[in-house]
């Protein structure tokens, strides 16, 4: 099953992607007299059911995918885990030692944007990078999960663009949290793809693109720490909850400037792209996305 969040009747609403197009959950409820949660995070918390896809396929009036306005999958996860240097090539880019354990950091939800939203380059940084990543979304509350059991707690996978103020990070590795947490520094969507649709996670090819040109790509199998290992590892650090996101690391970070378009592409997942704007000094306006 593939799910998304779209603009529908003036607000953000969960939707199911079918062969006929995009079916908003509120339309399913209205047509069939049902009461599915209309926010994607609430659907995840309830537990994603194949019945939702069957109900979507019974609902007429699907929106063509090209006409739908996709947003971030949701805006209020309990936590976002990022994984640094999970591909050896990326560690070499940063002249950093290859970690022997996952190098984790956390991001706030104020960083979240969706497909087509603008990445704002802050005046505090002159070197921002965009990093394409595979995202793992947790599907149920869990603690001390074994690696072989990790698939049972995963709601699905998604595309992510993670941004870093690289010049700030280079000044001092202790500045990692600051470098990762400027507003608009985390884009994810447009689809949440449930594990039954992902035949081979390790075989996925993740690519960082800029302005339609490939910067770097690599296979998930070349990660130091696989997605399932990362779920198990972090479940031993803290409880994981439905909607928690693990951004599994990038094959390569590309410097982005005003006027660029940053993009994540993963085979079988489509693409996620965002235009780039530099915020002038003294411009303290907020993005204020719809639905917040």
Compute the gyration radius: what is it? 18 Å
Q: Let me know the number of strands.
A: 16
Give me the CATH architecture of the largest domain, please. Alpha-Beta Complex
Mean pLDDT: 94
Provide the low-confidence segments as ranges.
287-292
Share of helix, binned: 10-25%
Number of helices, where a helix is a run of at least 4 consecutive DSSP H or I residues: 7
Order of helices and strands: EEEHHHEHEEEEEHHEEEHEEEE
Query: Biggest sheet: strands, sense, closure?
Result: 11 strands, mixed
CATH class of the largest domain: Alpha Beta
> What would you call the structural class?
alpha+beta
CATH superfamily of the largest domain: Fumarylacetoacetase-like, C-terminal domain
Number of separate structural domains: 2
Description:
There is one protein chain. With 292 residues, this protein is of the alpha+beta class. The protein folds into 2 domains: 2-67, no CATH class; 80-278, Fumarylacetoacetate hydrolase, domain 2. The chain has 7 helices and 16 strands. Strands 1, 2, 3, 4, 5, 6, 8, 9, 10, 13 and 14 form an 11-stranded mixed beta sheet that branches. It has a 5-stranded mixed beta sheet with strand order 7-16-15-11-12, with no helix packed on it. A hairpin with a 2-residue loop joins strand 2 and strand 3. The chain is globular, with a radius of gyration of 18 Å. The model is unreliable at 287-292 (pLDDT under 50).
